[in-house]
Amino acid sequence: QVQLVESGGGLVQPGNSLKLSCKASGVSFNNYVMAWFRQAPGKEREFLASIRWSARIVNYADSVEDRFSINRDDAKNIVYLQMDSLKPEDTAVYYCASTGRAGPWDTPRLPAEYDYWGQGTQVTVSS
């Protein structure tokens, strides 16, 4: 069974950086797409970035492409989200997600396209 465990959230001042981690286990992720979403209170869950495990194809939401970066560590089965120049509006619960049913050229961005989710980690950007 696929398990995703996020870590690295916390309180950070505006303009600073934070790096989230998602430890994945349970299956071979060679054909999986891994992604990061976030959800602020009263808002829908928002796609941020994805990476195809085998081909390192990455995809970003326009709103964060210049500040966020997704990467992975194959040996540790961990996907990272590096977040720079954080703003108060980045405050949200951040979720890791994965799917094994995306086609080789698909870049899924909708929550419904992902089958597995972590429990989320809170990120608060405030002075």
Structure description:
This protein has 127 residues and is mostly beta strands. It has no helices and 11 strands. The chain has strands spanning 3-7, 10-12, 18-25, 33-39, 46-52, 58-60, 68-73, 78-83, 92-99, 116-117, 121-125. Strands 2, 4, 5, 6, 9, 10 and 11 form a 7-stranded mixed sheet that branches. The chain is globular, with a radius of gyration of 14 Å.
Number of helices in the DSSP assignment: 0
For the termini, the CA-CA separation is: 40 Å
**Shape, principal axes of CA atoms:** globular
Instruction: State Rg.
Output: 14 Å
**Based on helices, strands and strand pairing, what is the structural class?**
mainly beta
| pLDDT averaged residue by residue | 93
Q: Name the poorly predicted regions.
A: none
Number of strands: 11
Elements, N to C (H/E): EEEEEEEEEEE
Strand content: over 45%
Portion in helices: under 10%
Largest sheet: 7 strands, mixed
